[in-house]
TrEMBL record:
Keyword Iron (UniProt): yes
Family per similarity comment: Belongs to the class I-like SAM-binding methyltransferase superfamily. C5-methyltransferase family.
A Pfam entry, by short name: DNA_methylase
Record-level GO BP terms: methylation
Listed Gene3D superfamilies: DNA Methylase, subunit A, domain 2 (3.90.120.10), Helix-hairpin-Helix base-excision DNA repair enzymes (C-terminal) (1.10.1670.10), Hypothetical protein, domain 2 (1.10.340.30), Vaccinia Virus protein VP39 (3.40.50.150)
Cofactor: [4Fe-4S] cluster
UniProt keyword Disulfide bond present: no
Family matches, as InterPro entries: C5-Methyltransferase, C5_DNA_meth_AS, C5_MeTfrase, C5_meth_CS, DNA_glycosylase, Endouclease-III_FeS-bd_BS, HhH_base_excis_C, SAM-dependent_MTases_sf
Protein name as catalogued: Cytosine-specific methyltransferase
Length: 652
């Protein structure tokens, strides 16, 4: 009986290929001490350079983009040894492996930035989820202007803001996942904006589609730009042409899965020539002696059954459509487990998961997963850029990176803003206070939705279900009775409930009355259910997320409510898009819409009343037709006022 091949893992059926392990020497201008770093920074400053620091820098995608824009990255910090080695190889200055959850390291970074005269701080701090209790404590600190970012050591975004507070750079660029804007309360982002504005920065946030800036993949990032002293920032103009997958990687030679060149880390594949404009740009900086070769064009081995599956797949084939004998995963869970990229369109997002398996990234023409170099191309890393460590570390660094082309466009826009030094509009804090004061000035008796001044959440729920879009006369008749109701489990409320339901049915709202009746019966068996700030998880019959959110916003529960949700209903988007002159309702309401609203209500002590003020504006003055702009408290800062005779662009 033959011996088992030790290079095959049991149950895997494919020969393992390890390595190569890439080692990269430090950059010629790399600094090994803080003294060398300061001398290096002073020399660049004397030559007129704008200096940048990159925290949580990874391999250096953002750093590379900033340098292409004209900045000089002199300081970078990360806590991944392979990424630090990669960055140190490609950039001069000081690249260190420090843990920024450590308060001493935070202060050390800020001191170095101050001493060097760093102009721009960039980075993508990880943002962890928080418990409601944790959110409440953090928000309390923020709104009171307290600075104690180190009692929760995993909160690296707070370390990032502490560096800003201590170093006070002219500009801050923060990159993160768009999930920060999908959170219904947008807690972290609103806290960041609040703190930055307290420090005197004008802040802009946006969900950016990276393909609009020459990145050949579907990849969205949340970008925050803050400029000191209230300087205005204009987002870079998107490019007209889109780069597809084949325009990005079509010039790279064919290779089989698991192939490795001779020479280990120094080996290469033969390369012919670039064809498209994008490919030519990827070859920029490749030495003349290496024009005929491509490095890191290697990928994983392919199982025989996977190879057969890949050969059967087109760009639109789903995993569930493969023959049963070729499925190794549950199709009801992994319907898109395998994905062949479409050469005529954008790639799917390159993430760090590519380091674990490449099934989401099957080559558009060959029956294998992407190579390191192909993944780097799709992230817009040029061919001269190499990655330290084994292949898995290279894939991880690529997937975690900010696409350099995005960084370049952001860097150019920031430099232009710092040169122009135009004044930004009113900060979020000022807008929120104006809205809050206006709402309070209406004697706690809103004219649009009077239940914004309700005393219990049950009152809000009843009014929303029965009176949404009702005529003013109907509201005036029914709301005073609803306002006498307390909780569905209270006997007094039950008697009034029958009267309210009869009134609703008398005006033709039978279906709404039946919905409310069923909900009331359900809640009577669950006293206090409406006191939670996670009403959606209760799956209460007849209670939509929008109605639940309005109840949470209108009536906070003492000691339980950490922060209010950001609503994109009740007409608030109409007000936000007119105020910002940005048609966010034509984009993504759950991202762009929430961001637009958040930029008006902030995250401080005025946020809840400001949000109510937005709803009141939408239902009284900022109407869909013939808005009463002259009476609006935001008139002086509304960007749409005066465009037409009635003060509104018809498109909005």
């Amino acid at each position: 009986m033959p011996k088992a091949d030790p290079s095959r893992r049991a149950g895997y059926g494919v020969k393992l290929v390890r390595g190569p392990f890439v080692r990269l020497a430090p950059h010629a201008d790399s600094c090994s001490t803080e003294e060398q770093f300061l001398a290096h920074a002073r020399r660049l400053k004397s030559e007129g350079a704008h200096l940048a620091a990159d925290l949580f820098s990874g391999a250096g995608g953002l750093s590379l983009g900033l340098e292409e824009a004209g900045l000089r990255v002199v300081l970078s910090v990360d806590h991944d040894k392979e990424a630090v080695e990669t960055h140190r190889h490609h950039f001069g200055g000081l690249t260190v492996d420090w843990d920024l959850s450590d308060a001493e390291q935070v202060e050390r970074v800020a001191a170095l930035m101050r001493a060097a005269g760093v102009d721009v701080l960039a980075g993508g701090p990880p943002c962890q989820p928080f418990s409601k209790a944790g959110r409440y404590l953090i928000r309390d600190r923020v709104t009171k202007g307290l600075r104690d970012p180190h009692d929760e050591r995993r909160d690296l975004w707070r370390s990032y803001l502490e560096v800003v507070r201590l170093a006070r750079p002219a500009a801050v660029i923060m990159e993160n996942v768009p999930d920060m804007a999908l959170d219904r309360e947008m807690f972290i982002l609103r806290s960041m904006v609040e703190e930055l504005e307290q420090l005197g920065y004008a802040v802009e946030e946006s969900i950016v589609d990276t393909w609009r800036y020459g990145v050949p993949q579907f990849r969205q990032r949340l970008i925050l730009v803050a400029l000191r002293d209230g300087v205005h920032f204009d987002w870079p103009t998107p490019l007209e042409e889109q780069v597809n997958v084949w325009a990005a990687i079509g010039d790279l030679p064919e290779v089989r899965g698991g192939w490795r060149p001779e020479g280990g880390a120094s080996g290469w594949a033969d390369y012919d020539r670039p064809v498209t404009t994008f490919q030519h740009s990827m070859r920029t900086g490749v030495p003349q002696s290496e024009r005929d070769r491509i490095y890191d064009h290697i990928t994983r081995p392919v199982r025989e059954d996977d190879e057969r599956a890949f050969e059967m797949m087109g760009a639109k084939t789903r995993y569930s459509e493969l023959p049963e004998e070729l499925k190794r995963y549950r199709e009801d869970i992994f319907d898109d487990k395998y994905k062949r990229l479409d050469e005529n369109h954008l790639s799917r997002t390159i993430t760090a998961h590519i380091a674990k398996d490449g099934y989401w990234y099957i080559h558009p023409r060959q029956s294998r997963t992407l190579t390191i170099r192909e993944a780097a191309r799709l992230q817009t890393f040029p061919d001269r850029f190499r990655f330290a460590g084994p292949p898995s570390a290279s894939f991880r660094q690529i997937g975690n990176a900010v696409p350099p082309r995005l960084g370049e466009h952001l860097g150019r826009a920031v430099l232009a803003a710092l040169k122009t030094h135009a004044s930004a509009g009113p900060p979020t804090q000022a807008v929120a206070k104006t809205l809050s004061d206006w709402f309070i000035s209406r004697n706690s008796s809103p004219k649009g939705l009077p239940w914004l001044s309700a005393e219990t959440r049950w009152q809000v729920v009843c009014a929303e279900i029965l009176l949404d879009r009702a005529a003013p006369g109907t509201v005036a008749q029914v709301w005073p009775v609803i306002r006498l109701m307390d909780r569905p489990e209270n006997p007094e409320s039950t008697d009034l409930e029958d009267a309210v339901l009869d009134m609703a049915r008398s005006i033709g709202r039978d279906k709404r009355a039946n919905t409310l009746s069923e909900l009331a019966d359900h809640l009577r068996d669950r006293p206090g259910a409406l006191d939670t700030d996670d009403l959606v998880s209760l799956r209460l019959p007849g209670l939509s997320e929008a109605v639940g959110d309005l109840a949470i916003l209108s009536v906070p529960v003492a000691g339980k409510s950490a922060e209010e949700p950001v609503l994109t209903t009740k007409g608030v988007l109409r007000v936000a898009e007119r105020f910002h002159a940005d048609p966010v309702s034509q984009k993504n309401r759950l991202t762009d819409g929430r961001l637009a609203v958040a930029r008006m209500i902030g995250g401080g002590t005025n946020a809840r009343m400001a949000h109510k003020g937005l709803i009141e504006l939408a239902n009284t003055l900022c109407r869909p037709e013939k808005p009463l702009c002259i009476d609006c408290p935001l008139l002086s800062s509304c960007k749409r006022f005066g465009v037409e005779d009635d003060g509104m662009d018809p498109l909005f």
